[in-house]
Amino acid sequence: MQKIILTGDRPTGRLHLGHYVGSLKRRVELQNSGEFDKIYIMIADAQALTDNFDNPSKVRNNVIEVALDYLAVGIDPKKATIFVQSEISELTELTFYYMNLVTLSRLQRNPTVKNEIKLRGFEKSIPVGFLNYPISQAADITAFNATCVPVGVDQLPMIEQTREIVHSFNSIYGNTLTMPEAEVPKSDLEQRLPGTDGKAKMSKSLGNCIYLSDDEDTIKKKVMSMYTDPNHIRVEDPGNVEGNVVFTYLDVFAKDEDFNKYLPEYKNLDELKEHYRRGGLGDVVIKKFLNNILQDLLRPIREKRESLSKNITYVYDVLKSGTKMAQEEANKTIKSVKKAMKIDYFADDEFLNEIVDKYK
Ligand code: TRP
Description:
Blueprint: E1 4-9, H1 17-33, E2 38-43, H2 45-49, H3 56-73, E3 81-84, H4 89-98, H5 104-109, H6 111-119, H7 128-131, H8 133-143, E4 148-150, H9 156-173, E5 181-183, H10 188-191, H11 216-224, H12 245-253, H13 256-262, H14 269-278, H15 283-309, H16 312-340, H17 350-358
Parallel strand pairs: 1-2, 2-3, 4-5
Helix pairs in contact: 3-15, 4-8, 4-16, 8-9, 11-15, 12-15
The protein binds tryptophan.
């Protein structure tokens, strides 16, 4: 069996560090592992419209921003097909057929949907399109016969929903769809990078993000104003490392080489934490250290993004040709789905022969 990746993001804003550690980094690793036969990365504009239907410009503008972010982090159009969801009408068609296989109460029980309903104030009246998006996500995944879906943990209920649809479809109509598997980051911290304010998640609406496209000064400002330990007032005070965002980020991003380069007084993070706990280590030192590390990580991404943005027709062409390739692939799936569902009347002579035979 072929090994195929499909994943994607809603184009509702530029991508940030949370996206990077939670998913983008892993996608690039998987892409470069050479283990996969095909890789599809989808810009989920149709899904973004399910809760931004009244703001189409936002979605349209962010399609190109997300494409730039993808290319800047190292998604390689020679190895991966980047495409725009709404252009693939087969996805809408598949969604329509899968809707028969899912109950309303099952959708309402989906933990991610439940949470998002609350966040968006949809409790009183939920747009059908929004409630339906897990089904459309199953269409995205199965249209490309994806075996592997690299996502953040918040997406696990979506993959579970997809697996149920695949199971149900295959048992009713015969083995047609490929069963996908989710792939999530190994470490808890990568799964949910907190925001710079210490809130549980980095998120655009909370305004606590460091964007992949932020310039040097912006990154520095955000790091220098990060939440630490509110009781660590004077340098001499003992400090808490737990719940201290600077240390959380250092846990994710600091490597031993970084100590060598920027903070040679310490061998590693354990030594630094030890000193902070004991007292006598100021927040400015640890923030400057983290700033250096993040600048090193983000500089090449930002520079690549800037040079791509000067050549924006190239990015447009990547999207356009990727979308064409994706469409061809999805078309193969819709054909086999329609055949399995016995609605492929004009695909060959089978239906004609049947009726001729019947009315002989
Ligand atoms: N729901 C995903 C998100 O909010 C985006 C998405 C749409 C997706 N379709 C997908 C992710 C299919 C993986 C597979 O980020």
